[in-house]
């Protein structure tokens, strides 16, 4: 008995030990790599006799990250930001060499613009903005008394920052790199397997709305994660870069197919709810071959290609089956619903085929010549948050500048510099007040430890290797803290404060008075940034921003109804996904906000896609005379309703769509249009959707399906 | 090629110009290697890339001295 117990437990215990060791190895590898980059940068900077090796060394700390691809991506954008900031510093100094007031105003404005820009991006592009501001400040501030020195200052700072970036990039890329490429590959494969599995599992019929919402959430997250990973991995892996176009196409087709799939299921759900089982069952029967076609093992690597012929077979089977099923129906209403569903199903099958096709291309070992269609993942940015961040940073800098001028404080520039770094670095953080507080705490400890290290240890040693040996243990503490989830911000503050206050240069200068003055100035700068975050709170995660994002999401229907058609389908899908994922990441799962958002997202998604398809068909075929006017009115009234929903506009939109349907069915020439309009009408009348709040009274079940 | 080049009246070391040129060259080679799957034949692609860069930069710098 006990022997069995031990046998059972032994692998588990070993697994725990192995996992722990693996985690520890990864942590210490990070510490080792960062320190290697840190000291190598310092050594090279001293060999090249750059004036401030500490700037270069600090740079390696700021870009330190456990993922190699991240370091390269960060470094790339940082390099762009550094060069841009240097140019601006140059212009500002050249424009106001003798006007300190105007100089400070111009600099504050630039720093504000940079931190505003940083909030617009959720990936490493925001670093370009942070560094644009930071570089401008470190170049321009030290030469405020000596404007002709700006060129030398600029070349020295650029050399130092770029050296730090180069060394940490090379170290992270070559020394035991941890690759995000594998994560990307796994994510793409999981997305594919999950979606195909979900489609296969739901051929049985109805899906509850809550399951649908969860699935939608998952689809959104998958799409956005893949795009975020892709934009980082292309920096670390040449092959991923070569396949980048295909990956974007893969993601786009995923979004298109998942939207059509959801529309289809909403339709079946509605029919079932209205007890129009004949049509519902017929659609499910029509759908069955698709489930059978997908029923193949997809986990194995190169299996996507296997699905392609099966999907073609399923499409033919469905085309043959549709007339048979249609014959069995007598009611014209049933026939019309069935036609709508069949058209939707056809659309979905085509999109699924395209999706699987791209997946097969991606899995192929060789890249097929001829790059994929150029598509861009459009983002839904909110400019109000950016303007607020600009305002906050500008005000902080102006206040510090005024204090500096009035008090004639010799260390004023040091304070301003620190405020710049932190105002920019944390402008995009969801809870900057807490993060800045933690970083400040770490920074203080780092400076105290720095004092001990500099005056108790460094004064005793001689030569670079001994200096490394005496700094390394102190630095290690901060780097280890950086890898932990809870102490990460404190660790970052500690490492930065420690590296910055040591101000290592060759030959080293030991000046306790200057050290303490500098430390006080840096604390003042940091506190100014922290206070600014309290007084001008960030909008990220606030109710106001969520309302705006929700309004923007609804406005997507107007985009679908009115924006120029070329590329619209993808633009609509990607902005939708980006917006939803932003709001989802800022709301608690299951809260009222989150549920309202999801309900709206489903409605917007379905109606928007149907509108786009309708407009495509309208453009392609020659619509019979007179019909176009009715459809345009319907599009416009729908757009107005979604932009600012209320009961009156709802009625207008409903009637406009009904009129358009009547007009189109009179002409009886353009079947495609009728089905799209019918779908829009049904989505509008869905009593379970978020639109129910605007309906004059809950519609009867009969009314839903009997809509003209 | 001169050891120092004046760009807009600022003296820039020739080595630096060559450094940028070899970065651009490496980017091209990297693109080609990724496109045709050459990195599959290499044990450690980043190390290979670094070595290739040193070779390219060294070869170009030899023209200076």
From TrEMBL, chain A:
One of its GO terms (cellular component) is plasma membrane. InterPro entries: PHBA_efflux_AaeB/fusaric-R (IPR006726). It holds the Pfam family FUSC. Signal peptide: none annotated. The keyword Membrane applies. The chain crosses the membrane at residues 27-46, 76-96, 102-120, 127-144, 156-176, 383-405, 411-429, 441-458, 464-482, 489-508, 520-545. Keywords: Membrane, Transmembrane, Transmembrane helix. One of its GO terms (molecular function) is transmembrane transporter activity. This is Putative membrane protein YccC. It comes from Luteibacter rhizovicinus.
UniProtKB/TrEMBL annotation, chain B:
The chain crosses the membrane at residues 7-27, 47-64. Pfam families: DUF1656. It comes from the Bacteria. Keywords: Cell membrane, Membrane, Transmembrane, Transmembrane helix. This is Uncharacterized protein DUF1656. It comes from Luteibacter rhizovicinus. The lineage of its organism: Bacteria, Pseudomonadati, Pseudomonadota, Gammaproteobacteria, Lysobacterales.
